[in-house]
Amino acid sequence: EISAVLTNNATPLDGLTIKASKNANEVTAAYEIEETTLEMIIHFPATYPLRQIEVESGNNRAGVSEARWRSWLLAATAIMVSQSESILDALRIFHKNISMHFEGFEDCAICYSIIGALDRALPTKECKTCKHKFHASCLYKWFRTSNQSSCPLCRSQF
After folding, report:
1. Which of 9, 21, 28, 58 is most solvent-facing, going by the fewest CB within 10 Å?
2. CB contact set of 25 (below 8 Å; sequence gap of 6+)
3. Residue 155: inside a domain
């Protein structure tokens, strides 16, 4: 996986700097915006693949709430662990979430992510009352677990 990142790093994502180290068993992705750097570290444990990949926050996450930042890291983890995708796919999702956030796209009010981890779609299901948008999969899970068909934010019927 680290070798794949090193060979494919010739085509970087706009604003995302990717560094991979075989000695440290980790990949670092840094997104630079203005004078701030948002950083995600993907660490491979010594017993990989018997133990899961660990995704950690770097030194800085300025301009992003803690919940939203954790959801982006969780989405990247889900891509690699649950869906058995590559690190590059997780980095692409991480990059899309950050870049779309700073371009002004509205994130899902349930998972705090712009790109859905399961279906990789934008939030399109809009509440008629409060106008917030949600991913279809997030709404389905909300309806199923809450046993109601109301908006998660304003509680009006969906």
Report:
1. 21
2. 2, 43, 44, 45, 46, 48
3. no
pLDDT of residue 78: 85
What are the backbone dihedrals phi and psi of residue 101, each rounded to the nearest 5 degrees, phi first?
-60, -45
Query: Whole-angstrom Cα distance, residue 120 to residue 34?
Result: 27
- Per residue in 70-128, pLDDT (tens digit) is 888 888 888 887 776 788 888 888 888 888 888 878 888 888 888 777 777 888 899 99
Q: Is residue 101 in some structural domain? A: yes
pLDDT at 1: 73
Please report, for the domain that includes residue 68, its CATH number.
Answer: 3.10.110.10
Residues 117, 115, 75, CA angle at the centre, nearest 5°?
35
pTM reported for the whole predicted model: 0.70
What's the CA gap between 75 and 72, in Å, rounded? 5
Domain residue limits at 80: 2-109
Could you tell me which of 45, 94, 47 has the C-alpha nearest to residue 74?
94
Q: Which of 4-18, 51-65, 108-122, 125-139 ranks highest by mean pLDDT?
A: 125-139
- Three-state DSSP state, 57: strand
